[in-house]
Structures are given as C-alpha cells and as structure tokens.
Design goal:
The protein is of the alpha/beta class. The chain contains 15 helices and 14 strands. Bound molecules: pyridoxal-5'-phosphate.
C-alpha cells in the first residue's frame, strides 16, 4: 500500500515475477512430505525422484526436446555460465573462438570476458538501432576455429527478439561444427519455444521470470553437444551438474512452464494491449521522450516498454516512481555514485547522455488497465518536476533527434 492507501503497481516483470499460487501449491508437498534425497533408495526418495523425472518430461515436451537433454540448474546465470564454459572447456584443442553479442545479459558477457582473459578469442557482434542481432553480422564473425556462438533470444532491456533460426542457419553454413547457444530467459515467459525450430544446441531458461520459484533453471543440451560440467562432485543430471536436486523448485519450474503454455493466449493478449497503450500514450504525455527497441510489435517482447527520457536520470525517475507507488526499472547501472548508461543502449547507438534517462516498464500477470493509467498519471508530472529543478535548460542536442518521438 502507498501512503494514500492505494495498492502498489508492479511494472518490473522482467526482473522477477510473483510465484503463481498454483506453482506454490505444487511445490509444497516436496517441502513438507517428499523432502528426501532423490538419489536415495527408499520409497520416499523414489517419490521425489519420480517428481523430478516427470518435471523433466514436462519441460522437454514443452521445448520440443528429449528428457535426457534437460539439465536442471539453479537459474539463468548458472545455465549461461555452464553453456559458455562447458562448451569452451570441452572443445579445447578444437578451437578457442567464441562469438556473442554486445547486448547479452552480464551472465553471458562477463563469462565471455573471463574466458577471454583465460585465453579464448572472443568476438562481440554489434546490434542495429533497435537492439537486434543480424544473422549476417553473426555469420561474418564466425571463423574456422569458432567453437560457440551465443546470442540471446530476446533482450531483457529493450525486448528485441532475435531471429535465431536465421542466425543458426547462417552460423552452420559458415562453420557446421560451431555450437549455438541462446539465452531464452526473457522470451520463455512470453513465447512458445521449440529448440528445433529455433535451431539451437543449447538453451538457457529460468523459472522466476515465468511465475515460478527463484533458484531453478534449465540448460537444454542437444544430444552430442560437447559440454564439460562446471560443478562437479556428484553424478546428478547425468554427470553434467553435481548437487542434490532441489525437488520442490524443479517441480515449481515445470508447473510454471505448463501454466505459461496453457495461459499463453490470455497472457499475450493482456500484455500486448497494455504495452500498446503505454507505447502510444507515453510520447503524447511526455515531451523529449524516445522509445527504445523494436517499433514492430511482432519483434518486441509483449509487455516490454522501454524508453529514454531527455534531461532526467533514470535512477531519479525510479526513486520518484517508487514514492508514488510504482515499482519499475532502468537499464542503467549505478556504480560508485555515478550513473553508467546501459551497455545495451550504448551498443544500439543511443547517445550516452540520453541513455542515462532510460526507463524499463515490464508488464505481466500483476497488471491491469488501471495500473497503466496510474503510471500514465504519475510519470509526466514527475518528469516535469525534475526538469524544472534542473539548473540549466538547454535545447536537445541534434544527435538526440533520431531517438526522440516527442
Ligand atoms: C536475459 C537474462 N539472462 C540471464 C538472467 C539471469 O537469470 P537468473 O536470475 O535466473 O540467474 C537474466 C535475469 O535477469 C536475464 O534477464
């Protein structure tokens, strides 16, 4: 509740989502009654094992994969780390080149950077002005010694969806031995995923972005893909990831995926409608505002609204929105007191000064039309107040022009 008694508005579904009650219900028996170690041999443990097997079958079916190709992990970051490190380690002697994009999540970018420090050759592919990675650009970066190509399915900041099928084709045409990984953490919440149609060998997912619990993720590993385990010391997950399985979280992940599948149409319709309203109305109500990410709704994640607001800092808007009862996010990272513009917006070519005013609103099951109207009523006066406080009023620099809508 806010101080005026109104319910708070949650517009940060890309950060995490509230676990669905049905997911919690499905998990509880594995915390209360079937808490036993699935690797033990007694009856209770076998029930836990069966639950994991069933969850694996559900996840595999929903991804168009085989159960043995599913590795349960602790989440997206671990799956990304396992994919990159696992393939590069397993391919020693065959090549040390890794291709990824400049707009990946830090779980991929920082791992690639670290692999670079350890001797791998890393090529970062750029993006277009809407945040998309092109198949041509990826293919041009692939070499004879390329071992792995990792390109995200949809971007977490600007919602740009990449055409992975084309990227996969282009990579294989250039080097048939290169392995293709995608981070599908954001897209899995909204889009039906099929590993064959996407043309990927490895795919990362996490439960907490699709109304499942924190601490459960998936790495899909196509049969025959070289992958060295990164957590060792137990035979779990067919020797690909050691550690006693988190039965309840795994059951929660599979339940959340099944619900996302069953409710896809409802979720899509709601998110798209709310997204369209915001994308249309924000530029009308706030001068010097730009929409970042794809204009074409079919190439943008439903529910993603990302904008830049001239002459204000994203972090300041977030604080003011919080006080007004709205939880949102910004692409910028506050490091040691100074606000760094988002690496995604910078890679897209957004001028850094304008990128500092970035704001990401992500819609989902928490939201209704009333939430969007509330945002539309509180945000414009916040921006106006902040601009009025600014000591110098200057014209928008000419390089901002292509990015601004209003
Ligand atoms: C694109 C992307 N990849 C990876 C992650 C990390 O996932 P997790 O929080 O499950 O470690 C996130 C989370 O924000 C993400 O948005």
């Amino acid at each position: 509740m806010t101080s005026d008694g109104r319910a708070r508005v949650y517009l940060d579904h890309a950060a995490t989502t509230r676990p669905d009650e049905r997911v919690i219900e499905a998990m509880l028996p594995y915390l209360r009654e079937r808490w036993h170690n699935p690797s033990s041999i007694y009856i209770e443990a076998q029930a836990a094992r069966r639950a994991i097997d069933e969850a694996r079958e559900t996840v595999a079916e929903l991804l168009g994969a085989r159960p043995e190709e599913i590795v349960f992990t602790s989440g997206g970051s671990e799956s990304d780390n396992l994919a990159l490190r696992g393939v590069m380690d397993a391919s020693r002697g065959r090549g040390r080149h890794l291709v990824t994009s400049a707009v990946e999540h830090h779980a991929v970018l920082d791992t690639a950077e670290q692999l670079g420090r350890e001797g791998a050759a890393v090529t970062l592919v750029g993006v277009d002005g809407e945040g998309r990675v092109s198949a041509e650009a990826v293919a041009a970066a692939v070499r004879d010694d390329t071992v792995l190509v990792s390109v995200m399915h949809a971007n977490n900041e600007v919602g740009a969806i990449n055409d992975l099928a084309s990227i996969g084709w282009a990579v294989r045409e250039r080097n048939p031995r290169a392995v293709v990984h995608t981070d599908a953490v954001q897209s899995a919440a909204h889009l039906a995923l099929d590993v064959d149609r996407l043309g990927v060998d490895l795919l990362t997912m996490t439960a907490h972005k699709l109304y499942g619990p924190r601490g459960a993720g998936v790495l899909y590993v196509r049969t025959g893909t070289p992958l060295a385990p990164q957590i060792i010391g137990g035979g779990q997950e067919r020797e690909r990831r050691a550690g006693t399985e988190n039965t309840a979280a795994i059951v929660g992940l599979a339940t959340a995926m099944r619900l996302a599948h069953e409710e896809r149409e409802t979720d899509l319709a709601r998110d798209r409608a709310l997204q369209a309203r915001l994308l249309e109305e924000l530029p009308r109500r706030i001068p010097l505002l730009g929409i970042t990410g794809p204009r074409d709704a079919s190439q943008r994640l439903p529910g993603n609204v990302s904008v830049v607001v001239g002459f204000v800092e994203g972090e300041s808007i977030l604080l003011a929105l919080d006080l007004a009862g709205v939880a949102a996010s910004s692409g910028s990272a506050c490091t040691t007191g100074s606000v760094e513009p988002s690496h995604v917006l910078v890679a897209m070519g957004v001028p850094p000064d304008l990128a500092r005013g970035s704001l990401r609103l992500t819609l989902g099951r928490e939201n209704s039309e009333a939430d969007v109207e509330r945002l539309l009523s509180v945000l414009p006066p916040i921006v106006e107040r902040m601009r009025a406080l600014s000591p110098v009023r200057v014209e928008a620099p000419p390089e901002w022009a292509p990015w601004l809508v209003s």
